[in-house]
Amino acid sequence: PSHPIPSLSHPRPAPSRPVPQSAVRVTFHDRRLQPSEQQQLDGWRWSRPGGRILDIDIPLSVGILHPQIHPTLLNTVEFLWEPSRRTSVFVQVHCISTEFTLRKSGGEKGVPFRIQIDTFGVGGKGDPPEHLHSASCLVKVFKPKGADRKQKTDREKVEKQPAPEREKFQPGYETTVLAEVR
């Protein structure tokens, strides 16, 4: 099953720049898992021949040009976009966070993923593209019933906290909010 994620809106560079290219990736957020990430992705590929971890939902996306889905990079999509137009990309994550955890008797917490978008300008003759901007966010992906249950239990936990503790939590948003990566 596909699990759509709300749009990832991206800041626009100065209008005088040529058409930029962005790459969206889903990676493991936890640093402990990053060294084994490629091995984990290869295992996922082996268990789901022809499957992809990440896709662009073209009908819902706005202002993207020439989307590219690489057959070997299952967790990456790329596209060009026009800086002078409103641009939003909707992505679909086709795996759930618990697919990368050791199976127990239920109640697995799931691996947090990071969705990262890197934007590049056009490089000169023989020069690599210029890195313009990077932003990311942490997500966990669950099956719809599991996600509803998880949101309910998380909301209940937050509501039980004293007011000063509740202020430490980030509010919910309609779309995914990305933080700049330095």
Describe the structure.
The chain is an alpha+beta fold and 182 residues long. The protein has one domain. 18% of the residues lie in helices and 30% in strands. It contains three helices and nine strands. The chain starts with a strand and ends with a strand.
Contiguous helical run count: 3
Query: Helical percent range?
Result: 10-25%
| Multimerization status | single chain
- Whole-number count of domains: 1
Roughly what is the average pLDDT, rounded to an integer? 80
* Overall radius of gyration: 18 Å
SSE string, helix = H, strand = E? EEHEEEEEEHHE
**Would you identify the regions where 5 or more consecutive residues have pLDDT less than 50?**
1-17
Care to count the β-strands? Answer: 9
Strand percentage = 25-35%
Distance between the termini: 34 Å
Give a short account of the largest sheet: 6 strands, antiparallel
Structure class: alpha+beta
